[in-house]
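Please check this:
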Amino acid sequence: MASLVGATLFEVMAIWGVLFVSFIGLGYAIMLRHQILSYDKGTPVMIEIWNSIKEGADAYLKRQLKTILPLIIVFTFVLFFSVYIIPPSDEALHRFAGIDPNMISFIVGIGRAAAFVMGAIFSLMVGQFGMRMAVEGNVRVASASRRSFSEALKIAYRTGTITGMLTDGLGLLGGTAIFIIFGIASPDVLLGFGFGGTLLALFMRVGGGIYTKAADVGADLVGKVEHDIPEDDPRNAAVIADLVGDNVGDCAGMAADIFESYEVTIVSGLILGLALVAITGELKWIIFPLIVRAIGVLSSIIGTYLVKGQDDEKNRDALVSINRGFFASAAISVFAFMLVAFFYMHEWRAFLSVAVGIALAIAIDEVTKYFTHTKHSPVKGIAHSAKTGSATLILRGMSIGLESSAWQFMIIAVTILLSIVIYWGQPVVFVLYGVAMTGIGMLTLTGNNVAMDSFGPIADNANGIGEMAHMDEKARKIMTELDAVGNTTKAITKGIAIGSAVIAAVSLFGSFITDVTKVQAQMGVPEAMRLLATGIRVSDPIVFIGLLIGGAIPCLFSALIINAVARAASLIVDEVRRQFRIPGLMEGKVKPDYKKAVDICTVAAQKELIGLALIAVVSPIFIGMVLQVEALGGFLAGVILSGQLLAVFMATAGGAWDNAKKTIEDGLHGGKGSDCHKASVVGDTVGDPLKDTAGPALNPMIKVINLVSLLAAPIIIHYHRTDVGVIISIIASGLLIFGAIWYSKHGVLSLRRPETDYSK
């Protein structure tokens, strides 16, 4: 293995073993798929409803692929030619010693472009295949609920596990394969892999989020509030679009989101690990993260298979069963990490870093659960506020969202502090490596986390199918219980996704500093003036400007995406209102045209995502060229800080409003149809675009900005802003940003259709 010169026999075998484990994870996903598809799909009525959901999901996925494919092609060429702007790195020269430097640039360029395509395809596969399996699973969960709670729970959770194991297996496969081929030069290529996955996650998060919440808000406002009919009433023209939206937002979007966090943490871990190899001469710093990931795959397989429910009504609790599997995986992982630390690393610092990451995941899990679960006082308090109207309910939810942000920030701050304590007295690169290992540890249980998230929309869809098919009361009760637990698991995994995004971003921030320092060393910049020595000086007014603009970007991004949901939802409201005027529809004599609502959501989502993605990609390039590389570091710090606060606030407040509504629908404070219920529906409607669109979309946005900065920083250092090419690039990127903002504010208005009076 030429790429691992100096590696011991154990290290070579370990790398190949990690690659083999990635295939085990994928094989487990295939096995579960066969299991799920062997279950029946229920009655003809259930299958008819399921077919409508399936057709809507397929239509969305096909249109999304057509939208993003041209951009993938453009970025592939950009990444290939980006390596020619600057000389090859020292690591690339060492890895391909004896080859002409121009040929080395060509090899790295091909590798980076191919890795970008691979990352994009893997992210797309995780989202699309996972979503298609969720659609296959929902009707089977509904059918199984007629027989037993345990069978319905098993199908729902194992269907979600398929997506989790795809995330694990493909993420580990891509990173390990690149490392085997490029060795110490792999960071140059891994940046392309991470960027491909992150960019696709941004597309799927933004597009899926706009789709799902436009349908949900439109359906609720007209159906529940104006016509006082149930949530999944078949007379509502947006009900199928709403069920499709659960899949494109919470399955495809979340899976791609966690997948790119999984990629990004391994990218930053290997970049910082190679910096430590240069200091210590030991390869263990780059082998250890890969072994940790392989252990995570195996422990997730065991933990997810242990999730089984009981049919005894007094003892059946889906969340208890799911948590049992999660904690089993965590315990297995920690024990295995100890063995690796003792027998291979011969030190405990790396082990403590990954253990802290697992503890961070559990802590965020518990905090999110406290603020969003129906059994705890925050949600109960919001439900109680409904007695005095929607205004007080919304205010109470905002308060809880803000408080949750504060506590999660404290937890993350303590986590980073622990990384500093673990590597106390060591150079700053060790501390940054510790933070990266914390991120890798946090995402060790990715298989479990994605399974928990996908469980939510699968159970939600099953419940919707049950209501539309008028299934018996016993089956409906089982599905309602699973749906309620699914809301909590979705909220928990959103919290973990946001936390992992911040840790990944901090790791990338460390990689940014070390990469810039390497390039400065190549250029002959004195050591005392390199970025690793000076740090990001916020006291410098130019750097502070970068910090301020970075803090503003998540606010702008959130404003535009919420506005996009509002515009798309207004189109759904118009369509549902028009169809309610069709003679015989309210009496159940005429079926609504579900396809029109699906088409509106699909087109609106795809039109909106381009402008938002351009803002994330182009803004760091613009800031770097105008304010230079240190200010770009300040810009990244501002994005991370502001993005985390907003993301946690929106996700928690939205989840709490949603579950407060569900507690009222279960009979609290007057139940369905009461004034309290109507107030809670308004709160839930406000929270929907926050928790399922804007908040989660900030995760990939933060990482896209960090990865673009990593790719652009070496180029920015080599050129001065007074160069003609740089001036042209500044003008072009500035125009792109303002054009994207204008497009995001006005681009979808053309979708509005002329009023049609169906009563004539």
